[in-house]
Description:
Layout: H1 2-9, H2 23-30, H3 40-51, E1 83-84, H4 98-107, E2 117-121, E3 127-128, E4 130-131, E5 141-145, H5 157-162, H6 165-172, H7 175-184, H8 189-195, E6 204-208, E7 212-216, E8 224-226, E9 236-238, H9 260-267, E10 300-301, H10 330-335, E11 346-348, E12 367-368, E13 374-375, H11 386-392, H12 416-429, E14 456-458, H13 470-488, H14 491-497, H15 508-519, H16 523-534, H17 549-556, H18 567-584, H19 591-602, H20 615-628, H21 631-661, H22 669-674, H23 679-682, H24 692-717, E15 723-725, H25 728-742, H26 757-762, H27 767-774, E16 781-783, H28 793-826, H29 835-844, H30 846-849, E17 853-857, H31 862-870, H32 875-878, E18 882-886, H33 899-912, E19 920-922, E20 929-931, H34 939-954, H35 965-971, H36 987-998, H37 1006-1009, E21 1015-1020, E22 1023-1028, H38 1058-1072, H39 1075-1085, H40 1099-1107, H41 1114-1120, E23 1122-1124, H42 1131-1140, H43 1145-1156, E24 1172-1175, E25 1185-1187, E26 1192-1195, H44 1201-1213
Parallel strand pairs: 17-18, 23-24, 24-26
Antiparallel strand pairs: 1-3, 2-4, 2-5, 6-7, 6-10, 8-9, 11-14, 12-13, 15-16, 19-20, 21-22, 25-26
Helix pairs in contact: 1-3, 12-13, 13-16, 15-18, 16-18, 16-21, 18-21, 18-24, 19-24, 21-25, 24-25, 27-28, 33-34, 34-39, 35-40
Amino acid sequence: MTRYILQLRYGCQSKTCTTPTCFSCRKALAQGAPVRRYNPTSARTLAIYLASQDNPERALCRNLTSNLPFPPTGKHPKITVQNSPPNQVSDGSNRQDLASMEQDGNNGSKTAPVSRSTVQRDGSDGQAAVPIHGKPRRKGFTITSLEEPRAMDHRSFVQNVFGTAAFKMVEWLTPRNLEILASSGGTNSEERGKDRPDPLPAQATVLIGGGTEVKLDEKSTGIAESMPFRESNAETKTTPSNPSQRPPTKLSTMPPTENIADRLSDSKRPLTSAPTHQTSANVRRRSPELVDPSIPKGILSLSPKKDSQPDIRPLAREMLPARSKRRSSQQTIITSPQLPTSEPRLSVDSQVSSDEAIAEQRPIVPVSNMDGEMQTSTSAEAGVSENDTEEAISTISSPVSTKDTALPQSLSRLSVEMIEFVCDILQTDDTDEKHFLQPQRVHDGLKRRQSNALLLKRRPLPPTGSSYPSGLRSQWHAFIEQSFFDVLCKPDSLLRSFSNDEKRLFDTQTIWYLMFRMTRVAPSLVFDSLWNVAGTLFLPPEKLEATYDWAKDSQSQKTVASKSVSNQNAAQVLNICLQALVAAAPLVTDASQLANMSRIRSDGLILRSKDSSAVEAIELCLQYEDAFSDEMAMRLARRVFAAIPTRRRYGELLEHHSIQRGEKADPDVLDSVLATFKSLDLGTPPMLNFPDIERDFHEKRVPTLILDWARTVLLQGWEGGAEIPNDGPLGGALAMIAAIYKIRKPLRIGDFSFRIEYFAERLDSVDMPLEWLDSVPNKRTVHLLDHPFLFQPSTLVTYFRAINYSRMNEAHETAKATYNLMRSTISEGNLMTDVDRRRRLSDRLSTAISKFIVLEIRRNNVLLDTFNSIWRREERELMRPLKIRLGEDGGEEGLDSGGVQQEFFRLAIAEALNPDYGAFTVDSRTKMTWFQPGSPEPLWKFELIGMIISLAIYNGLTLPVTFPKALYRKLLGQDVTELHHIEDGWPDLANGLTTLLEWDESEGLVEDIFARTYEFSVEQFGKPVSRQMGMANNWPQFEDLNYSSNPTDAPMVTNENRNSYVSDYIKWLTEISIRPQFMAFQSGFFSCIDRRSISLFDSSTLQSVVEGIQEIDIPELRRATRYIGWEASHRTVRDFWSIVKRFDFDQKKKLLEFVTASDRVPVGGMGNLQFTLQRNGVDDGHLPTSYTCYGILLLPEYSSKDVLRQKLAMALENSKGFGFA
């Protein structure tokens, strides 16, 4: 709410802002015209609406200055916190946001007064007004929201609704303030005194990062505690200061009465403190017994008293000045705010090597032991190398105790051993986060170790074997969580933790395992930290700063914590985040189980309703739902996928910039990420010891689960339309699915893994394909049909036929409207009274008013009549519904309702592809049809044959043809370059070329064994014709054929040129030798079919659309059959299927052709086939008949099974011609 109000009223001050709800964008679009700023009520009204949307962050401005809790321009008052009379707020108690101060210091912006919110607390000994983000410690408080004065119109509906206290509560009643209400209400002072500090101390001034003063009043002994600032909200807390509650301690290193402020002023440099990260609203507080009460730790300027007992926490890292690189003095070390500890320490079984993982602050702090004596220890005892210690802070030259070791406040990197160590500690201490991810804990059987790796373990407390106290466990917990947060939320430390000494990222299985360990002990923290580091991916690379102004504007808004990353590092960060998402899924070890779960979730389901699966399967489905509905994991997934289109856009700009400079462009970010999925092929063994079966399964797990996450983001963010934004989480998820689809074969992923039937069930199957056909590709949106692999092939065929039907219906309705207009013009009683003029007008409009394209075909001249009927037809005629009159000159009475068309195309295409005509050749083994190189037939015949096939597909019919997949790849505009592209059409040739490529010359030279010359040769009309490949680029046609021009000195194929020979041979076979014939055929093929519409298919699906499916499954046909007048259990029906079951392949084809007029199964299988058995009386004298248009077999009830077999065979052998079809 606050961010929306700020960007609506004040904007982000960016000149290139493109967020419509940002005031800076409105101002830029106005181009100098006056722009009225929203008043507070209007801004709150719009903010409430925007924040209540399904994705409340969608309209937020991404620029940094829009996140400030104050207007970018304005004067921020000085922070003072002091006592006030009862029920009174001091007029001078203003607050100041540190992030705004830092921004103002960098940019030099002006400041202005702002509104404030305060907490009033009542008490007998005085009241103190503190910021609302602080935590009140006394009962009887009230919360008010003070705003800038404005005119109030009591007749205004908007002000009376959105200006009420109820809506104002939306702004200031945040989760943190709800904690104030919950923690302060309903308890008396005695109860609070047990676990809560006393009121604020008097006359204390707290120095906060950069010299900002916070004045505190003190009625009793105690000091202020500086708490972390989260999201630009300051928290001020108090600490208990009762000397009797803590045992006295001794301090030999510094007099207790020394003025800490003087010591701070002598240091002459800013001090830093380690950051803290709180994973819950409740702040963890240290036990008083474990804190040295004599040493003030905190940047406090006050005169300490002997009985003062400081208990402070360091400030957040974002609010602190940069760390000094020089060595610190002993005096500075002692007064620096630290995390005081007592007993926890690290030890290793063997010598610990120098580790860079110790925090940016590793001071030697005084540590009180269990007896209350003060001791110090070096950072080397805690596993800190000497170089790291010199870089951060020096040690104290004082007596060192090897018993007590100061625990570092955080780590700057996490090694594999360290991750194992800290995760084991959280599990052992039972301080890990309670979650629903499975398995909830990692037992020893799932742990993997490095070979010869150091085994880190915690030194036991005396007596040996005793458990750690709860206070020490809490400190270990806080230290580990702080380390996770510090390492994972920054790109540099994250990449150093997951890279080897050569700065190469670990293999994906090792990264997955480490994320698996961390997400089982602190999933929310891990996902939140990775979400933070993923935010740096949206910052433009530094290379763009010198080229584009908007990049300069983005660079100027960066903070210390937000540093842009290169494309290579961005790909590595994406890889780590994706492995964390994969690790969040339940641990499955069965590949089939993994695939089944992916299918269930692709339908948008949690459980498969029709499955009668066991309890374990249902439990696994629920575990999947728990993982994929985890709020923090889903939040990370959305940000990761949203970063993909952003980084790809940056990559395009960098590529354009590199081309201009002649430099090599960086690879695409997704290509870099996906290149790491094939770890076995890359030859990079995992760092950890994984069995081979686990390594093989991991290659299937990673892409499958990433697809599941991408689908989940798509389904949750989908708004029901076929067009989705090209950027954002949806565009990134779709781009990830498309990128994995391109490399699905190396990853061994089937096409079914990419289906999302959820879309097909909710999109209109007629309107949606037409919208896609009319849409213009752009960079802002992408249509779902641009990625047809998301749909089942049968669904795509439905969309394809819907497009054709719509075009057919439009042509039919246009002709019908023209006919009605002509009839109204030439009818009697109208202006046109001349009969001759009426007749001439009717003749001239005969083409325009014909509602069908009618072909009259004789059975003895099918192909000739077809050529004559479709020759020189207009496009609008071909678009109309087709009607066939077949064999009417011979007395046939075929009424075309579909069956006559099927019969006509079967006859016409069989004659057109007859190799005796010299236009096509048929392979003797595979029966595949291909173009005859240098055919004597004219090119217009190839075009007409293409038109015949186009008419059949346009009218929804399949043809009895068998073309190789190479033809369909060429029709789709795809290259035919690989051996597997031709192996279905020329299997013998493909085997021979494969043998040539794989031949080992140790068994003989290639030229000696194969004796091939570098030429392409075919046999034309009984004579060989050859051309040397590489010397010519065209094939001689029939009229230009000269057999004497065959090369006689072509070079031999050797080991050096055999690869190029195979590539050239495939090119000459499928492209150069048949180029004129194919171009003519292609022109006719697209006469009725839209070129874009067939882009829905791959080569296999397009082949099924043209040819149908040749395999006939009788059991499946029986399940799909419908009965009229029969029962499925009737004797005649059972006899019929018993006979058909024993048919060979040719008899099955004849049966299917007899009933449906086609011997091919349509796309989608038998379920899309109309096959009906209808009772036709009781008579042994009649043969079975059929209605081919409707797929009905009229079957009489015969007296015996033998009679049925005889009559059915006779009908199938004599099925030519129609009586009524």
